[in-house]
Amino acid sequence: MRLLILGGTWFLGRALAAQALESGHSVTTFNRGVSAADIPGVQALRGDRERPEDVRRLAEHGPWDAVIDTIGFVPQQVLTAATALDHVVGRYIFLSSVNVYVGWPNESLSDESATFECPPDADADFGADLGYAGQYGALKAGCERAVLETIGEERAAILRPGVILGPQEYVGRLTWWLARASRGGQLLVPGPPDRPIQPIDVRDVAAFALDCATSGHHGSFNLAAPIGRATFGDLIDTCVAATAAGTRPMWVDPTWLVEHDVQQWTELPLWRTNMGVWNVDSSRAVDAGLRCRPLTQTIIDTWAWMTGGGAAITGTGEAARAADHGLPANREQALLDAWIARA
Ligand SMILES: NC(=O)c1ccc[n+]([C@@H]2O[C@H](COP(=O)([O-])OP(=O)(O)OC[C@H]3O[C@@H](n4cnc5c(N)ncnc54)[C@H](OP(=O)(O)O)[C@@H]3O)[C@@H](O)[C@H]2O)c1
User: Fold this and answer.
1) 236 domain-assigned
2) Coil, strand or helix: which one is 224?
3) 4, 9, 12: which to mutate for ligand 1, most atoms within 8 A of CB?
4) Do 336 and 251 have their domain in common?
5) Could you give the number of structural domains in the chain?
6) What's the 78 CA to ligand 1 centre distance in angstroms?
7) Angle subtended at Cα 138 by Cα 135 and Cα 143, rounded to the nearest 5 degrees
8) Average pLDDT of the residues of the chain
9) Do residues 53 and 114 both lie within one domain?
10) What is the pLDDT of residues 166-195, one digit of tens each?
């Protein structure tokens, strides 16, 4: 297969390019060449997706059997790409997000849940009144429409992952917990340990996206690990075991943490009390072949990557986002002291 990846050097795009090459596909990547090195073996084309002339020039390098668009965030830009590539790609696979659902993160979600309304030609200012997560979701919904209305439903697949973890993660979620566990001592952890979580491994998202590119799968697919298969306790236990620093988790009442202004999702990554966050049904993708490896494997492989020199590909943009995540050591200690002294 001749495959085009928009992006292709960071987290998901990198995993996609690596798997596609391993499977013997011919891979073209399109990015600005500023964030990370190209994977050896790809045909690397330079350009900025925000510049319509770059995207139109890209089309001259086709045809491809499929494009996987990992970097669509603004409908107008996705519309430009879909229009330029329509006649030179067989299929268009678009990486969206569970944020397209109006009910996220407060309601359980299925593939049929209601999504935001957003025009397919909206610009980046659309939905500014919805807050960060709402605007991101609304714009992704507009991007989906831009693909479907241009390419047609039969030639398109829309992938809606929840949280993606694994080697090369740059957001700073699992990588923060692993780095923190490796420092040892008493570790503040938001209870309860049996809270279900369902992150998905980046390599499993990549495998499913490639399947969609090569098969006739079309429609939209939630991508998340099975509900209830892993818990926050599994996450912490595996981070502690993998880093082997004798770290002692102290489970703290989540209501107390909220009362003490601990920021969910960022200060304590992957912790969120809204009931819908980890209640995403991905059975349509499972029926179409999605396979999710155990969370423990994702954690062990991510730690191996962090300690094996792989993190050296980390670029400036990645570090900037990771800096938003995690609890500073002095704040963690103050919270632990207050929790122990509360009685
Ligand atoms: N991470 C998650 O938990 C999560 C969850 C749900 C959905 N998603 C979705 O999954 C997708 C993939 O996310 P990701 O985090 O792996 O990748 P990403 O950070 O969105 O993409 C980075 C790649 O895109 C290139 N790029 C960035 N801006 C560009 C531009 N203007 N023109 C051309 N290339 C550009 C970068 O290279 P250069 O900088 O060198 O150009 C790099 O190769 C995203 O659409 C995201 O919304 C992610």
Assistant:
1) yes
2) coil
3) 12
4) yes
5) 2
6) 13
7) 120
8) 95
9) yes
10) 999 999 999 999 999 999 999 999 999 999
Look-up: residue for tokens 């780095």?
179
Query: Which residues span the domain enclosing 132?
Result: 2-165+200-223
Q: Report how far ligand 1's centroid is from the alpha carbon of 197 (Å).
A: 23
111 exposed, middle or buried (CB, 10 Å; 0-12, 13-18, 19+)? Answer: middle
Q: Exposed (0-12), middle (13-18) or buried (19+): which is 68, by Cβ within 10 Å?
A: buried
Same domain, yes or no, for 150 and 14?
yes
234 and 100 in one domain?
no
CATH assignment at residue 141: 3.40.50.720
Dump pLDDT digits (tens) for 9-59. Answer: 999 999 999 999 999 999 999 999 999 999 999 999 999 999 999 999 999
pTM of the prediction?
A: 0.96
Closest residue CA from atom 24 of ligand 1 = 7
Q: What pLDDT does 324 receive?
A: 80
Pocket of ligand 1 (CB under 6 A): 7-13, 31-35, 48-50, 70-71, 95, 97, 161, 163-164, 171
